[in-house]
């Protein structure tokens, strides 16, 4: 027993470790609270850190998504005794399915690697059941990315399968542990609106009570309050009170998990694919209850909504609001209603972890990136100013990962893949001392404990800005550094000196933007090395505008923003678009 490696799959298990046992190996960097683990020696590196592995997984998962949307369409129809088409069910379950497949497959790959090791020992649990059923897709995402107990359950669900069907033969601890799942954190389903938005919504609710006329379009989200109001008034109508109808707390969760009914309605399929064989034994019991046991209750609720419209526009509600998705599927199914998606952020990666979900469910999916079909100004920047006020600080905006691996993305999925400790050490070592005094880290969420620990290990709390403070801090930024090309990068680029530092095999842009990326790299706006980026900062800090306002830099930035529809901020095109028939 002394020579055996004890494998730890989650922080839940780390708490159970015998302190005398030094022969520990973690299934991932995320399985421990420690930030001092050594790759390969102490833990298995991120599965998707390899470009080859990441690309293969994307192709594999996309095929599985396309296949299982069809399979689940038949299953849902069979369960509910209806005949809705694939689009109907994809609107409702597509986000959950893409997340489920990615998160389970990542952990499948981990177990596959672990199972190839010899002389390993794992904990021995007594489970009440191994179902991953949640009330809704939000709860699934929250649990799979943050919950120690839920992740432990997922791993041992897979381990049990590998032991039974894949000839995995680990040594089990003699003492059995009663596994309890009653300590999941309660998920906050309500959306955190600002004070101004709450007032705006109350006014909209009041107007909705007294005015029930048919609206030409409904703006669910995707525009700020001022623009939302202006666009509606231009069409001689009032804004739609989104939170009145589509609040996740209104969803009904009355019925319990029904194993027999779920099993009874499975339509058996034959497959030789190992992962699909696992899915066939598990996925039907892991589907959130709002799609099965509680679906009709929530469908009847949204059927009671008396909302008259021709066109509905969503920025992000179709991602996470179950009632909206059910209402949307019901109202765009075989009807003369139009559903339009307006991109809610600046992500312009070629590959997405939700695959073709948005293209499949919408009549038009309006990305910020220019296309032959439509070119509308990015909704976030309509009538938004482009200049910063005070130019003092060097702000570093970091892409925070989840505590546990989430869905596939063309970005760092795990904290060890982010290499944050190495990056922050470079700033401490290479950044000019005078500049360092004005250097600040600006996190978005700050909800990953190891992410916090890593930053605080390298910089004191005075150097760390509050979460969600980027918009305020941007006003005082002399230069912004981003490690991801998402919304904060576009926000910064529109307003002043900004650089982006990324890896070559991550955040790969859409083909139409490749030329822009080369121009930005040539003019030292994009870097693929922190050493070179920091040298550029040191060399240009005292006269940042000499670089930023040079012809080459100005042209490359302007061309990129134009390709992203982020230069123009007039509402006129949107007014015309929203009021015309598609």
If you had to describe this structure to a student in words, what would you say it looks like?
By secondary structure, this protein is of the alpha/beta class. It folds into 3 domains: about 50-120 and about 130-170 and about 175-190 and about 255-290, no CATH class; about 195-245 and about 310-365, no CATH class; about 395-565, Rossmann fold (3-Layer(aba) Sandwich). The chain is about 45% helix and about 10% strand. The chain contains 25 helices and 13 strands. The protein has helices at about 10-15, 50-80, 85-115, 135-145, 150-165, 195-210, 225-235, 240-245, 260-265, 275-285, 295-305, 315-320, 320-330, 355-360, 415-420, 420-430, 435, 450-460, 470-475, 485-495, 515-520, 530-540, 545-550, 550-565, 570-580; strands at about 5-10, 25, 120-125, 170-180, 215-220, 310-315, 340, 365, 395, 440, 475-480, 500, 525. A 5-stranded parallel sheet has the order 10-9-11-12-13. α1 links the parallel β1 (about 5-10) and β2 (about 25). α3 packs parallel to α4. The protein starts with a strand and ends with a helix. The model has no long low-confidence stretch (mean pLDDT about 90).
